[in-house]
From TrEMBL:
Signal peptide: none annotated. It comes from the Eukaryota. One of its GO terms (molecular function) is oxidoreductase activity. Keywords: NADP, Oxidoreductase. This is NAD(P)-binding domain-containing protein. Residues 24-155 form the NAD(P)-binding domain. PANTHER family: CIPA-LIKE, PUTATIVE (AFU_ORTHOLOGUE AFUA_1G01630)-RELATED (PTHR47706:SF7), NMRA-LIKE FAMILY PROTEIN (PTHR47706). Belongs to the NmrA-type oxidoreductase family. Isoflavone reductase subfamily.
């Protein structure tokens, strides 16, 4: 695709993205994307919600209700939007994203960030292993559909959400914080990238605060178009489970002697998670996904292979111990069991 310049655009082109729609603005990461976009004062943020939805939405967003089985309601709701974030719940019907992409094309949306916010999209084997083959194929199909329709995509790779993953329980980052138990994958020293929810929100807001296109061929400043049909790599921390436990100790005032520490090979745990999931236990999906990312082959450490966008976007360096403290508070408040119960109920 040839480089586009603002100087060559038709009259009325503003070279900034102002109108932004979010599907899932009340969700785990969508909430932070909406809030951070609103903080900039540069964007009008519209939450596209299912009619009858009871999701609590951030103050300041416009709300448009749609019926995902009635394409025209989606098209009408997306008209005038320049950029669309799709953040779907894991329980959403599999064809939801394809319906949204088709409607966005008809509505004239230019940019889409597809439902991602996770693993390295460039690592197709990893995606196939952690998302299941149909899941990986759906992701590839989404970006292909966006391009075929003449729109552009940006894929956010942030890896696992830190506070979520640490507080969810043993199948995720291996921690059962209320009972002071941890299962180390292999020796617990494999480091992976991980991001907080708010860092994902900041990245989205900072990206859309850039100019859309370079002014001309001499303009070297960062633009949204720099990531056209590419992956936006961000991260809060590059840490191991051992690092996490040391940080948890600071939050709780404990030491290793206060904890039950066990070890399990990542390949064994990955297979065990697959078997659990195939038997109908949703927890097995998390176990397989997380243990696969901790394989000692470096798949979870994408900053060793690609440049992070943190500096270009002006993202702050975060306090690891403060993020851990929040996760500990979430775990002690029962976040993990409640979340599992909610997902299980929605799947049945």
């Amino acid at each position: 695709m040839s480089i586009k310049y603002a100087k060559d655009q038709p009259a009325g082109f503003t070279n900034r993205i102002e109108n932004v729609a979010i599907i899932g603005a009340g969700g785990q990461v969508g909430k932070y994307i909406a809030e951070e976009l609103l903080k900039t004062g540069k964007h009008t943020v519209t939450a596209i919600t299912r009619a009858g939805s009871s999701s609590e939405l951030p103050a300041g967003v416009k709300v448009v209700q749609v019926d995902y089985d009635d394409e025209q309601t989606l098209v009408d709701g997306l008209k005038g939007q320049q950029f669309l974030f799709i953040s779907l719940a894991v329980t959403a019907p599999r064809d939801t994203q394809s319906k949204v992409i088709a409607a966005a094309s008809k509505a004239g949306v230019s940019w889409i960030m597809p439902n991602s916010y996770g693993a390295d999209f460039a690592n197709q084997q990893l995606l196939a292993d952690i998302m299941t083959i149909p899941g990986a194929q759906a992701s590839e199909a989404a970006v292909a559909a966006i391009e075929t329709a003449g729109m552009s995509w940006v894929w956010m790779t942030c890896n696992f959400w830190y506070e979520y993953s640490l507080s969810m329980g043993d199948p995720w980052y291996g921690f059962d914080i209320p009972n002071k138990k941890v299962t180390f994958y292999d020796d617990g020293k494999t480091r992976i990238n991980t991001s907080t929810w708010i860092q994902c929100g900041r990245a989205a807001a900072q990206l859309l605060s850039l100019k859309e296109l370079p002014d001309d061929e001499n303009d070297q400043s960062p633009t949204v178009s720099q990531w056209r049909n590419k992956i936006l790599y961000i991260s809060s921390f590059l840490v191991s489970q051992r690092d996490m436990l040391d940080s948890v100790h600071k939050a709780l005032g404990t030491t290793d002697s206060d904890w039950k520490i066990e070890y399990e090979p990542t390949d064994v745990r990955y297979k065990r998670g697959q078997q659990l999931f195939q038997s109908g236990n949703i927890v097995g999906f998390g176990m397989a996904m997380y243990s696969r990312a901790f394989y000692p082959n470096g798949d979870g450490n994408y900053e060793a292979k690609y440049d992070l966008a943190n500096k270009v976007l002006g993202l702050p360096e975060e306090d690891f111990d403060e993020a851990t403290k929040l996760a500990v508070e979430m775990a002690e408040a029962g976040f993990g069991p409640r979340r599992i119960q909610t997902i299980s109920a929605l799947r049945h």
